[in-house]
Amino acid sequence: MQFTKMHGAGNDYVYVNAFQETLPADIPELARRISDRHFGVGGDGLILIAPSSVGDARMRMYNADGSESEMCGNGLRCVAKYVYDHGICQQPTLRIETGAGVLSVDLEVQGGKVQRVRVNMGEPILEAAKIPTQLEGHPVVNAPLAVGGRELLATCVSMGNPHCVIFVDELNDALVHGIGPLIENDPRFPKRVNVEFVKIESPRRVFQRTWERGSGETLACGTGASAVCVAGVLSGRTERRLQVQLLGGELELEWRAEDNHVLMLGPATEVFTGTWPMDG
Length: 280
What we know:
single chain, alpha+beta, Diaminopimelate Epimerase, Chain A, domain 1, 2 domains, 18-stranded mixed beta sheet, 4 helices, 17% helix, globular
């Protein structure tokens, strides 16, 4: 089975062209094995690029633990780049079907290759039951969250997948690796949750580290950066246009007042291709 390794600001996945490749019956097991950074290709998960009846292609994403997730903003940018660069559909605007619906992406093309992608991430979901979370608030903004002996304030947003945004004075491993997995698996988040720890530099620029549901810490998270943009506005900490610095690079976000949509602009990079043994 042919695969392609790609990343968006360091958020790396193994991509398989399901237009052409024959896939094994147990996709979650494939995701676990191929994502292993010691015994497999290595990545934050597996993403299938498949035919769609409602868009130019369909994205199906699996975390490194084999669980299927609704959406990944960095992954979506890479899917769009693959679809264009590999000739599946070469239009300046693509429609990609995801678990969070059909999303529109605009491509910045140089020398016949996609360099950056702007994704219309759609409208944030702020109703607690739909995120889902059992934390109180309508919306859930600065909700008290006691976990791991710490008293935190959480703002919760879904961008098709659930996010818990925690604004902090300092970013460190004790928070991300110690508190992140506790929040991910906290029973107040019935479907688990992605956790963003955010330090504010200014109302227009923040630093973000993400503990990603099913994958652990990742170098970037596009839906997480989108959720941070929304959470910053809701909590009065940031403006609607925001630069988000992640461990793997920078994303540009905007939560538009006129239509309530979140836009994300960032890079997409193809690293290498290879062959995965079907019995591997």
